[in-house]
Hints:
By secondary structure, this protein is mainly alpha-helical. The protein has helices at 7-20, 40-46, 50-59, 71-77, 81-96; strands at 64-66, 69-70. Helix content is 56%, strand content 5%. A hairpin with a 2-residue loop joins strand 1 and strand 2.
Amino acid sequence: MKNYSDGLFLLKLIKHRIEEKATIHGRVNLDTRDRFSRNALYWAITYKRVEDVKFLIAQGISQEVAPNLNALSHAINIENEEIISLLNINEEMALSA
């Protein structure tokens, strides 16, 4: 697995790969991480890109956004109410399933 040092680049790369999936056969590796093991969801939360967070969650990306850090905790750390609410709803849906 290749590591990426630029978080925004990693986020855009994953989104591009998902969007191109319709024309390219095979799975997209949603677990692609940067050199510090942070995934695209980490960066979407960090940059407060709510639509990207929704998109990545819908694709089934790992909620463990970095070692020993889950998405909800990360959103709480950066104090983004909209993303916190979104992740809370997602977590409640997962628990009730």
